[in-house]
Design a protein that fits this description.
alpha/beta, seven-stranded mixed β-sheet, five-stranded mixed β-sheet, 14 helices, globular
């Protein structure tokens, strides 16, 4: 079973920066094997983050700004690739492919009432620019294929979760806490399909509230240290739990369109009505975030008759010890741990997942779980760009369609 080197690129809804991971990958489906070789993260500057966030807002987004950022981010992602490879023990010529999530700026998983109000999504960061800058084939723009098949275009990491973390003895919830929280439920019963949904906000509201209450001095509550200082106002949390998203049945997805700055305005207004001090607000939204996760499990997993033994947390939220402590408190019958226990860094998971998704695309294999996204069937997500012949030949090599001639060592194409 031949292995290949792939780079995964991820920039999520928290807009912290670009995660880049180099992996060795082989196998398909449950036979997938992946080894993390190197990882780096490139932080966005304050100005970059603000410009991207402006594109995610109906009131501030402009068509010309979207167009320019599509190329700017591709340049930035290319720089992340070059820095990753430079830090590793490999050369660019050793890398077989890149798989990029891009940057979501708007996600509409549900159809509206009008004839033009179709479910849709938009990720920017042009893959042809990345291919040209790196000389490598680039897979990207994954979500649209799932939505074309009736899915919600999320959560996509459920495929990665299912192929690497299904256990024959334990029922597991793979909980990612990025800007948005999402869970993949994995049953030990092979007859039961995995399913996934967004539990609600992950770090998004906590980060925004911490930023505002610190007058912009901090971007997030590092380690949950601020949240340790306050007390939980139960009535405040109960009011936040009344948001209609939490009572919606899966499959469901959400994003900054629902829990972004406008929602943070509502949270701050509510905190004012309860006369909460800054410490209690940060503690309250941290406890609330944990409760949106635990209540989701109660409402849509355990109460539906699915057993649950273990919760494996990944994403930036896994570093928030106060958030994890609240989650364990709210889930006393389950063991709550992090993905680091299994040899994969919480910071790496999502980028590594796109290595798996991109590799399956290049192999011509489906890379979705229809029961997770509510699509009518699994699809092969992704689009491919190769701007140079050498990049095209790497694609053919991965697919087993390229051989070298013994006579003149020139490339010959063949289909075995």
């Amino acid at each position: 079973m031949s292995a290949h080197l792939g780079i995964g690129l991820m920039s999520g809804t928290s807009l912290d920066g670009i995660d880049a991971v180099l992996c060795r990958i082989s196998g398909i489906g449950i036979n997938t094997r992946i080894e993390v070789l190197h990882f780096c993260s490139i932080s966005y500057t304050k100005e970059e983050k603000e410009k991207i966030m402006a594109l995610c807002d109906d009131n501030t987004s402009r068509v010309d700004d979207i167009t320019k950022m599509n190329f700017y981010l591709a340049e930035k992602f290319s720089e992340a690739v070059q820095e990753l490879v430079a830090q590793s023990a490999y050369d660019m010529s050793d890398i077989d492919f890149i798989s990029s999530h891009g940057q979501t700026i708007y996600h509409l998983p549900d159809e509206g009432s009008g004839p033009f109000d179709l479910k849709s999504t938009l990720q920017i960061c042009d893959i042809s620019v990345i291919s040209e800058k790196t000389g490598l084939p680039v897979v990207g723009d994954f979500r649209t294929a799932d939505m074309a098949a009736g899915g919600q275009g999320a959560p996509l990491v459920s495929f990665f979760d299912a192929v690497l973390f299904t256990d024959k003895q334990k029922a597991r919830a793979l909980q990612n806490i990025g800007g948005i929280g999402n869970v993949t439920y994995l049953s030990p019963d092979s007859g039961k399909q995995p399913f996934s949904f967004d539990t609600g906000p992950g770090n998004m509201v906590i980060d925004e509230i911490a930023y505002r209450l610190s007058s912009g001095k901090i971007k997030y509550d590092a380690g949950g240290e601020w949240a340790k200082k306050g007390t939980v106002n139960a009535a405040f949390v109960a009011e936040l739990m009344k948001h209609p998203y939490f009572s919606r049945k899966p499959p469901k997805t959400t994003g900054r369109e629902v829990f972004g700055k406008a929602y943070a305005d509502e949270v701050m207004s509510l905190a004012g009505r309860f006369n909460l001090n800054s410490d209690d607000v940060v503690t309250g939204v941290t406890a609330w975030t944990a409760k949106t996760i635990s209540d989701s499990y109660q409402d849509f997993i355990t109460s539906a008759g699915y057993p649950l033994n273990e919760v494996i947390v990944s994403g930036g939220g896994s570093h928030n010890k106060t958030l994890l402590a609240f989650l364990q408190k709210f889930l006393p019958e389950q063991r709550v741990t992090t993905i680091d226990e299994f040899g994969i860094s919480s910071d790496v998971k999502e980028a590594a997942a796109f290595v798996v998704l991109g590799y399956h695309f290049l192999k011509g294999k489906t890379n979705t779980i229809a029961s997770a996204t509510n699509a009518v069937h699994p699809v092969i997500m992704g689009k491919l760009s190769y701007t140079q012949q050498a990049a095209f030949e790497k694609v053919l090599s991965i697919r087993g369609m390229l051989k070298k001639s013994n006579k003149d060592d020139t490339a010959n194409f063949c289909v075995d």
